[in-house]
Amino acid sequence: MLGEKIRNLRRERGMSLKDVAEKTGLTSSFLSQVERDLADPSITSLRKIAEALDIPIFYFLLNHEDHSPVVRKNERKVLRFPRSHLTYELLSPDLNRKMEVMMARLEPGAVSCDEPLAHPGEECIVVLEGVMEIDIGGEVYRLEEGDSIYYYASIPHKLWSVGDKDLVFISAITPPQF
């Protein structure tokens, strides 16, 4: 379970709930509920928790015994957030590489995150279906099927699905962030 993985990592790092709360801006009581699987963190909250624990977000979903370089379409690690319209599928076999590749799906009219996020490294996105608008440092770009964008991920960014069908895109990020 997600909560158990978070609790185990926190304890391995010798951190209290208060320590994680201070690093994330989340309350200790909320973090306690997450660890006991009584509350589901949003994508923004889970990213903050992962950052505080110094771990990629997808770590929480990976089977660390898998070492195959092949990722079968029906065996991808999938990350869905409650009350979110965004789904991620990890296309790379694990996060022990210098790059991660994932496919994301965002419902029409939905946004990737509440506030623009920044992380170290570089990112390249290719739109497979739908229409994306992406704000990178206050400049908005519109991408349609087949378009791609490459940017420094340290610049705060946020994206929207602006078409009338799901936005599906591939994202390659280095170094791995999820």
UniProtKB/TrEMBL annotation:
* Species for this entry: Neomoorella humiferrea
**Pfam families assigned to the protein according to its UniProt record, in alphabetical order:** Cupin_2, HTH_3
Q: Which domain of life is it from?
A: Bacteria
UniProt keyword annotations, A-Z: DNA-binding
**Domain HTH cro/C1-type: start-end pairs:** 6-60
Q: What is this protein called?
A: HTH-type transcriptional regulator PuuR
Fetch the CDD domains from UniProt.
cupin_XRE_C, HTH_XRE
Question: Carries keyword Acyltransferase?
Answer: no
- InterPro entries per UniProt: Cro/C1-type_HTH, Cupin_2, Lambda_DNA-bd_dom_sf, RmlC-like_jellyroll, RmlC_Cupin_sf, TransReg_Diox_bact_type
